[in-house]
Amino acid sequence: MGRAFEFRKGRKMKRWSAMAKAFTRIGKDIVMAVKEGGPNPEANSRLRAVIQNSKAVNMPKENVERAIKKATDKDTANYKEQLFEGYAPHGIAILIETATDNNNRTVANIRSYFNKCNGTLGTQGSVEFMFDHTCNFRIQNNNQDVEEMELEFIDFGAEEIFADEDGILIYAPFESFGAIQKELETRGIEILSSGFERIPQVTKKLTETEIADVEKLIEKIEEDDDVMNVYHTMDESE
C-alpha cells in the first residue's frame, strides 16, 4: 500500500469526530460553494460534492436545504479560506486550513495557540511544501476489481486506489478532482464522499512525552470554530 493508505489509517477516527463540528464545517462549505457557483447542485460540482459529504456524516436534509437557502442571501457573509503554517514543539510542521469571515480574529487565535504551546507560527510557504495536496473520493465497494479500476483511472489523474471498511478510496493530486468527479458521474458510480487532504512527504517519530506536547497544540487548534483541518508531520503509525 502507498502513502495515502498509511496516512488514512493513521488518521482514522480522528476526523469529523464531533458531529456538531462536522455540521459546522459542512455549513461553511455550502456557503462557499453557493457563493462561488450558485445554489443549483446540477450546475455546481463543488456544491454536489458538499451535499454528498453531508450525507456521509448523516446531516439532515433539511439542514442542508436551510444552509443553501441562507447562502443565497446577499447579506450572508462569505467565508475566506486561509492557510496557516508553523511548527509545533520538537520540530513538527503544522499546516492549518481555515474558513473565516473575520481574518483578524482567526490570525490572533491561531497565533495565541502556538504561543501558549511552545510552537512557532511561520510565514506563508514555510511548511506547505512538505505536504502533497491531494483529493480523494469514496465509493461503494461492490467487489469491483480495484487493480483494474486503478488502471482505468490513471488517465484521469488517480495515483492510488484501495479498499478498506469504508469502501473504495481513490486518491489523486488536488488538480485532478474535477476530472475524476466527472468520470465517476459519467459512469453512474455514486460518490459517497469526497474531499481534499494534505499528506506529509516525510514524518518524524516522537517519544510519548513529545507526542503529548504536540497533541496539546493540535487539540487547541482543532477546537477553534474557524479551523477546518489540521495536518502535521508527526508519525502516527503504531
List the helices and strands and how they pair.
Elements: H1 3-11, H2 19-37, H3 45-56, H4 61-72, E1 80-88, E2 92-100, H5 103-116, E3 120-121, E4 131-139, H6 146-153, E5 160-164, E6 167-173, H7 177-186, E7 191-200, H8 208-222, E8 227-232
Antiparallel strand pairs: 1-2, 1-3, 2-8, 4-6, 4-7, 5-6
Helix pairs in contact: 2-3, 2-4
Which short descriptors sum up this protein?
single chain; about 240 residues; alpha+beta; 4-stranded antiparallel sheet; 8 helices; about 25% strand
Produce a short descriptive summary.
The chain is of the alpha+beta class. It contains 8 helices and 8 strands, in the order ααααββαββαββαβαβ.
Q: Could you please describe the fold and organization of this structure?
A:
This protein has helices at residues 3-11, 19-37, 45-56, 61-72, 103-116, 146-153, 177-186, 208-222; strands at residues 80-88, 92-100, 120-121, 131-139, 160-164, 167-173, 191-200, 227-232. The chain is of the alpha+beta class. The strands form 2 sheets. Strands 3-1-2-8 form a 4-stranded antiparallel beta sheet. Strands 5-6-4-7 form a 4-stranded antiparallel beta sheet, with helices on both faces. It is globular and about 50 Å long.
